[in-house]
Amino acid sequence: MASKFQNRLMGTIVLVAIGVIVLPDVLDGKKTHYTEDVASIPIKPELDSTVESFEVREPVDDSASLPEVPVEVVQTPQPASVKDREQLNFAVKEVPEKNDYADSAWIIQLMALKNSENAKNVVKDLQKRGYQAHTKLENGFTRVIIGPDVSKSKLERQLIELDKITGSKGQLLKFKPLNP
């Protein structure tokens, strides 16, 4: 004969099995089955007869031959009056190649941060304070740059102010417009 403990254990196992099998179906509620609306693609679409028909044109004969003897084009200069020559000399004016102001601009490189969000926050704060601040991505770092400005003394004064505001000592560098 089975002991009371074994009877209780078997009863518990049966109740748990019924609970695991039957209760999810009972508690799940109304079941809805989703079906996808499938549209079949026709094998060959039916087309209008005007679309299927086309006109075959005759080929154009373009068998033009080049002359056997080379042709030379000779242009004779037309005599210009004295006024026309003066106007031509006036119109052709040499432009100096070097810009005198190319080497006179300066920038402050304030700091280089690895986190670009921090650099953008610093730039926003500096722009609110009236500085001409920008960011430049270079070699995985985001550099905070102030300027450019033609006045070196003005930027030197700003270096001292920026040291008080941000706590970092910036560098005064020449501005290169082709490679800022």
UniProtKB/TrEMBL annotation:
<feature type="domain" description="SPOR">
    <location>
        <begin position="100"/>
        <end position="175"/>
    </location>
</feature>
<dbReference type="InterPro" id="IPR052521">
    <property type="entry name" value="Cell_div_SPOR-domain"/>
</dbReference>
<protein>
    <submittedName>
        <fullName>Cell division protein DedD</fullName>
    </submittedName>
</protein>
<keyword id="KW-0132">Cell division</keyword>
<dbReference type="Pfam" id="PF05036">
    <property type="entry name" value="SPOR"/>
</dbReference>
<dbReference type="InterPro" id="IPR007730">
    <property type="entry name" value="SPOR-like_dom"/>
</dbReference>
<dbReference type="GO" id="GO:0051301">
    <property type="term" value="P:cell division"/>
</dbReference>
<keyword id="KW-0131">Cell cycle</keyword>
<dbReference type="InterPro" id="IPR036680">
    <property type="entry name" value="SPOR-like_sf"/>
</dbReference>
